[in-house]
Design goal:
The chain has 116 residues and is mostly helical. Helices cover 74% and strands 0% of the residues. It has one domain. It is elongated and about 65 Å long. It comes from Microbispora hainanensis.
Length: 116
Amino acid sequence: MSELFEVNYVDIRPQQLAKGLSQWHVTATDVESGYAAALREIQRLNAAEPWGHDTAGAAFRSAYMEGGGPDTLMKKGEELAAKVVELGPTVRRSAENARGMDGERAREVREILKRV
């Protein structure tokens, strides 16, 4: 498997880093609050049980709830939104620690960048 890029050195440009982290923070905040609002709406709609209680509704509910249904998806979404929020501070810490980075740190940065 080829890598998208290779980290041989770290070249941090403070102004671009600050701008990027600021934009990341705004976006991450939007993701977090937007997901929370969507989650509340999904929970509200599910609580109304719009599928009904007849045979067809029971069959739909059974299929819909299979494997944890929407609860599993909503939990995974919460985890993903939290990771989006966490990545900004992770990048900030990595940049702050970049000076004098040894081979182990370079590997950590490579691993972080693979997840982005």
